[in-house]
Write a structure and sequence with these properties.
eight-stranded parallel sheet, five-stranded antiparallel sheet, 16 helices, about 25% helix, binds 1-O-alpha-D-glucopyranosyl-D-fructose, binds calcium ion
Length: about 550
C-alpha cells in the first residue's frame, strides 16, 4: 500500500474562512482569525482542517472563482499568514487541507484575460470555446447557477463554456499545458507543507460540451490518475474529491485502496433525498427516512474493503443538519447529538462543518439579507417564472447555502464575537443561546458530544474497521446498526424523531458497556425524543 492512510481514523473540520473569525474588524473572517482559534480546534480533537478557498479572488462565488492559485486574497491575509497557519496548525497536531478548484478559474485569472484577447493567444485553448451555431448559442446547456452555460466574447467571436457562473470559465483539461500548470501549482502547495486537498467538482473536469456531458466524462479517471501521479500520489496526503455524480462503481475507482486516485470522495446521494425527484434542490419533499437508511447502508456495505467513505451531514453548500433532519427548537441539543452519533458511528472519515459542533441552526432572513449568488439567481428566476414569493422564501429558508455561511457564533457579545465590525453576512440572532463559549463551559453540550465521539474513534479501532450491518431496516423511528470486527461489537441505536418509543429489538445487553448516551440516564428499551446510545462489547 502506497499510503500510510493516517486519515482513516481522522476527523476533518471544515472552515469557511469568510465566516469563521475576523481578526481585524473588517467584518470578514481571515487567516489570523483561524490561527487564533487553533486551541479551540485542538480541544475538539480534530486532525485536519479543510480550508475553503483563500486564494486571490473577486469573490463572485466566495473564492470558488480563483484569480491566482498562488496568492492569498488580501481580505484573508498574506502568504506569510498562510505559512504561519500551516506551521502553527502543525504544533496543534492539525494538518491543513487546501481546496483546489480545478474545473474553472475566475474570469479575472491572468490565463483567461489572455485567452479572450485572440484565438492565437497561447492561453486561448486553456478554456473551452465554441463558435456560434446558426447565429445562436453553441447549444442549450444551462449553468448550475442558472442561465446559459455559454458566454459570448466579441474579441474572439466565440462563446466560452462555464458550468457555474459567467465569472467562472471552465478550464480545458484536454490541453496538456493546462494540466501541467495545475500540477506545478499543486506541488508548490505541497512544498509549503499542506496535508492534503479537497478537489472541487472534480467529476466535472472531463466535460464534453458537444455531447452535453458535464460530469463523469470518458477521460475523467485517466485525468485523475495522471493528476495523482504528478502531485499528491507521491506522499501521505488526504485527498477528497467532490463528486455530485458519484455512484458506487466510480466511487470504488475514486477511493481505490491502491492509492491511484483519491483517499475518498464526497458523494451526495443521502443529501438529495428531501427534494422532489427529478426536480431542483429548492423543490422540497419530506425526508424519506427508510430510504435514508437504505442509501447510507448501501454505501457502507459497498465500500467496505474496496474503497473508503467520507461521512458528512453539512458543508458550506448545505443547510444546517439540526434544522434539516433534527429539531432546532425543543430538542435542538438532543437531535444535534443524535445526528452526530449516527454519522460518527459509521465507517469512513467524518467531516464536521464549522458550527455543527455547536448545533448551529438555519436562518430565516428577508431576501435583502442574502449574499449567495445561487440563492439570489434562483429568487429572481422563479419570480420571473411566476412562483409565489412565499414558496420561494420557504425554499430559501430550508436550503439556501447562506444557512451554512452565517458567521461562527463564538460568544454572546456583539456579533457573536465573530467581528468588532459589521459582518459581511448577518449573524444568526440565536447566538445569545448558541455559542462556543457556553458550549465549552457545559460538560453536556453539543461540543462535548463531538469531542467525545472524536475521542472514541481514536480509542476503539472498531470505529475504523468494523463491518456495518443495518438493524430494523423497516422501522419508522429507529436508526440502528451494528459494527463488528474480530474482537468486538458496537451497537448504535438512535431514535430519529421527537416521539418517545420502545426499541423493538430483543437485546441481551449484559456484556455491553455504554460508550456514549445523549441523555443523562437510560431506561431500558425506552427511547426518549432523539435519544441515542452507543454500546460496546468485547467478544
Ligand atoms: O459545489 C458544486 C456544486 O455543484 C454546487 O454548486 C452545488 O450544486 C450547489 O452548491 C448546491 O446548492 C462546489 C462548491 O462546493 C461550491 O461552493 C461552488 O459554488 C461550486 O463548486 C463552484 O465552484
Ligand atoms: Ca478580516
Amino acid at each position: 500500500m502506497k499510503n500510510e492512510q493516517w486519515w482513516k481514523d481522522a476527523v476533518i473540520y471544515q472552515i469557511y474562512p469568510k465566516s469563521f473569525k475576523d481578526s481585524n474588524g473588517d467584518g470578514i473572517g481571515d487567516i489570523n482569525g483561524i490561527i487564533s482559534k487553533l486551541d479551540y480546534l485542538e480541544k475538539l480533537g480534530i486532525d485536519a482542517i479543510w480550508l475553503s478557498p483563500v486564494y486571490k479572488s473577486p469573490q463572485d462565488d466566495n473564492g470558488y472563482d480563483i484569480a491566482d492559485y498562488q496568492a492569498i486574497d488580501t481580505m484573508f491575509g498574506t502568504l506569510e499568514d498562510m505559512d504561519r497557519l500551516i506551521s502553527e496548525a502543525k504544533t496543534h497536531h492539525i494538518r491543513i487541507i487546501m481546496d483546489l478548484v480545478l474545473n474553472h478559474t475566475s474570469d479575472e485569472h491572468r490565463w483567461f484575460q489572455e485567452a479572450k484577447k485572440s484565438k492565437d493567444n497561447p492561453y486561448h485553448d486553456y478554456y473551452v470555446w465554441r463558435d456560434a451555431q446558426d447565429g445562436q448559442l453553441p447549444n442549450d446547456m444551462q449553468s448550475v447557477f442558472g442561465g446559459p452555460a455559454w458566454e459570448y466574447v466579441e474579441e474572439v467571436d466565440q462563446y466560452y463554456f462555464h458550468q457555474f457562473s459567467v465569472k467562472q470559465p471552465d478550464l480545458n483539461w484536454d490541453n496538456e499545458a493546462v494540466k501541467h500548470e495545475l500540477y506545478d501549482m499543486i506541488n508548490w502547495w505541497i512544498d509549503r507543507g499542506v496535508g492534503g486537498f479537497r478537489l472541487d467538482v472534480i467529476d466535472q473536469i472531463a466535460k464534453v460540451p458537444d455531447l452535453k456531458i458535464t460530469n463523469n466524462g470518458p477521460k475523467l479517471h485517466d485525468y485523475i490518475r495522471e493528476l495523482n501521479e504528478n502531485t499528491f500520489g507521491k506522499g501521505e496526503f488526504i485527498t477528497v474529491g467532490e463528486a455530485w455524480g458519484a455512484n458506487i462503481d466510480n466511487a470504488k475507482l475514486y477511493s481505490n485502496p491502491d492509492g491511484s486516485e483519491f483517499s475518498m470522495v464526497f458523494q451526495f446521494e443521502h443529501i438529495g433525498l428531501d427534494q422532489q425527484e427529478g426536480k431542483e434542490k429548492w423543490d422540497l419533499a419530506p425526508l424519506p427516512f427508510i430510504k435514508l437508511k437504505q442509501v447510507l447502508t448501501k454505501w457502507q456495505e459497498a465500500l467496505d474493503g474496496s474503497g473508503w467513505n467520507s461521512l458528512f451531514w453539512d458543508n458550506h453548500d448545505l443547510p444546517r443538519i439540526v434544522s434539516r433532519w433534527g429539531n432546532d427548537q425543543a430538542y435542538r441539543k438532543e437531535s444535534a447529538k443524535m445526528l452526530a452519533v449516527v454519522l460518527h458511528g459509521m465507517q469512513g472519515t467524518p467531516y464536521i462543518y464549522q458550527g455543527e459542533e455547536l448545533g448551529m441552526t438555519n436562518v430565516q432572513y428577508p431576501i435583502e439579507d442574502y449574499e449567495d449568488l445561487e440563492t439570489l439567481n434562483m429568487y429572481h428566476e422563479r419570480k420571473k417564472q411566476g412562483y409565489q414569493e412565499e414558496g420561494i422564501m420557504r425554499s430559501i429558508h430550508a436550503k439556501s447555502r447562506d444557512n451554512a455561511r452565517t458567521p461562527m457564533q463564538w460568544d454572546a457579545s456583539d456579533n457573536a464575537g465573530f467581528t468588532t465590525g459589521t459582518p459581511w453576512l448577518k449573524v444568526n440572532p440565536n447566538y445569545i443561546e448558541i455559542n462556543a463559549k457556553d458550549n465549552l463551559e457545559d460538560p453536556d453540550s453539543v461540543f462535548a458530544c463531538y469531542q467525545k465521539l472524536i475521542a472514541l474513534r481514536k480509542s476503539y479501532p472498531i470505529f475504523v474497521d468494523g463491518h456495518f450491518h443495518l438493524l430494523l431496516e423497516e422501522d419508522e423511528n429507529f436508526f440502528a446498526y451494528m459494527r463488528e470486527d474480530e474482537n468486538s461489537e458496537l451497537l448504535v441505536v438512535a431514535n430519529f424523531f421527537d416521539q418517545q418509543v420502545n426499541l423493538p429489538l430483543e437485546l441481551d445487553l449484559q456484556d455491553y458497556t455504554i460508550l456514549y448516551q445523549n441523555y443523562k440516564d437510560t431506561s431500558g428499551n425506552l427511547y426518549r425524543p432523539y435519544e441515542a446510545r452507543i454500546y460496546y462489547k468485547q467478544k
